[in-house]
Amino acid sequence: MGTRPVREAKAPMSATTDSASVIINGETRRIAAGCTLAEMIEGLGLDPAKVAVEHNRAIVPRSTLGTVRVADGDQFEIVHFVGGG
Amino acid sequence: MSDTWSVAGRTFSSRLIVGTGKYKDFAQNAAAVEASGAEIVTVAVRRVNISDPTQPVLMDYIDPKKITYLPNTAGCFNADEAIRTLRLAREAGGWDLVKLEVLGEARTLYPNMKETLEATEVLAKEGFHPMVYCVDDPIAAKQLEDAGAVAIMPLGAPIGSGLGIQNRVTIRLIVEGAKVPVLVDAGVGTASDAAVAMELGCDGVLMNTAIAEAKDPIRMARAMKLAVEAGRDAYLSGRMGTRKYADPSSPLAGLI
After folding, report:
1. I need a labelling partner for B8 at 20 to 30 A (CA). Which of A70, B120, B128, B162 fits?
2. Beta strands at B129-134 and B97-100: parallel, antiparallel or unpaired
3. What's the pTM value of the predicted model, to 2 decimals?
4. Is A47 helix (H, G, I), strand (E, B) or coil?
5. B240 DSSP 8-state letter
6. CA B254 remoteness from chain centre
7. Is B134 in a helix, a strand, or coil?
8. What is the ipTM of this complex?
9. Whole-angstrom Cα distance, residue B212 to residue A37?
10. CA–CA separation, B45 and B151 (whole Å)
11. A30 — contact with chain B (CB < 8 Å)?
12. Does A81 touch chain B (CB under 8 A)?
């Protein structure tokens, strides 16, 4: 799963003053460190029910969006359905 | 009189599958789908625009609870990209019925059959039900079926060309050899092309540009619905044989 920054001294929800640098769809973004993927998606203004997420090239099962947490350096692809033939 | 067809355990009444690309807007697209009577639409998987998340989305106009979304792999040029795309599609929608399309080159959009076959095998092992865009080659079609394709979808002509079915013989050979549904995918330009596909015994037709690029897409969608139904009925009714010379329809006896 790659290296993860050491954050054991802090509870995830109190870590919001820290920010993590992540790459989403090729764009670098800073988001609250330790938030869940669902929180990150909602924070982008998206509906988690309408997208699929790849986290460091691995598919994230929808059932774990609310539990998997974001770490500094993570890479995401967030996709949805568009018109096509 | 019900004439349904089934793919991967799902049964449909409409034999027309339509794409959702190239329309002026989502409203026109939804109206065309309605007019076509299609129960399945193809969709593509693309990155969300995270800079403008408020843009309207396809799902707001075409309800996936009413119309089956068939995610495609358009734009993928190798097996890995196609498999990655469909894994995401399955997570986005929960659908395992998918359209596999691995392209060989941008100019013709002909499929790369080696990569297509590899991807079909992997997808079938992962529990997907791939409907597979392919060349109009009866041997390749059998190989795909053996690899786990749940439908064979040969091109009638290059994608977006509107040239109509170029090789009726090979399409017919594929139909005769297949144990899974065969749908002409790509190349249809107008209603008669769709009717030809159905008269050859295909189970269905998939099209996008023929409807989307018509001057009146909604009317063309209706034309395609009628053409598919007409072609299907003509196929089932068993057409007359052809003759080299005339054969009068009015009796010759009793002429004044």
Report:
1. B162
2. parallel
3. 0.89
4. coil
5. P
6. 52
7. strand
8. 0.86
9. 37
10. 21
11. no
12. yes
Of residues A25, A27, A79, nearest to B92 (C-beta):
A79
Catalytic (active-site) positions of B = 99
DSSP B208: S
- Cα-flanking dihedrals φ and ψ of residue B156, to 5°? -90, -30
Q: Where are the beta strands (DSSP E) in A25-83?
A: 27-32, 52-55, 58-59, 75-83
The domains of chain A are located at: 7-80
- According to the model, what pLDDT value does residue A9 have? 41
Instruction: Of A15-29, B3-17, B179-193, give the lowest mean pLDDT range.
Output: A15-29
User: Hey, is the C-beta of B208 within 8 angstroms of any chain A C-beta?
Assistant: yes
Put simply, whether A51 touches B (Cβ < 8 Å) is: yes
Contact between A81 and B57 using a beta-carbon 8 Å cutoff: yes
Residue B236: which H helix or E strand, with range? Answer: helix B217-237
Question: pLDDT value at position A18?
Answer: 79
Amino acid at B51: S
Alpha-carbon distance of B119 to B130, in angstroms, equals 9
- In A4-23, the residues whose Cβ lies within 8 Å of chain B are none
Determine, for residues B47 and A54 on separate chains, whether the beta-carbon distance falls below 8 Å: no
Q: Is it true that domain A7-80 has CATH number 3.40.50.150?
A: no
List, in order, residues 6 or more apart from B5 with CB less than 8 Å away: B11, B12, B15, B181, B203, B204
